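Q: What structure does this chain adopt?
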Amino acid sequence: MIISGKIKLTSKKFFGILIKTYLKKKWWLLAWIWALILILLLDNNNDSIELFLIFSLLLYQVLLVIQFRRYAYSKENKVFMLERHYEIEPDIINGIMEDGTIQPLKTEHFIKVFKSSRYYLLYIAKSQFIYVPFDSFSNSNDKKWFENEIVKKIKKIKRDLYFAWLVEAANYVCNQIGAKINNSY
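A:
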């Protein structure tokens, strides 16, 4: 078992994580938007429809950033900003918040892990995660243990879920084919 140092996620860090996560998932959308903007700007015959389209595409991006900022700085998300530390065991992670609340999470409930250059995000839902910065580990051995015991286990769980889904999909297809063959006789 390891015990992390105190972790305090600020609204600014939370906003940065939200933006970085969005860009990682939707970089292709932004690339298409900027390609379209460049194509429209390079056209010498910009009429009002093209200018409206450029304005709309730029406004979409500004509104997206505003939405993320409002969410990150919202008073409703104060639970994310509470100082906490983690007691990490191979099968469970206990989040202990500054107000004494304990949040136990079994490692089998994590669905994904993201490792940046400064922190881990351990996902328990598509958009719900636990933030574990590298500097919260007291030494490099704790970080290595975390990487070997927790991160690898979460990646294995994700891989096992994918293969289980794949097998289930293959069984469904085979059953549908078998039913059609039986109905044809």
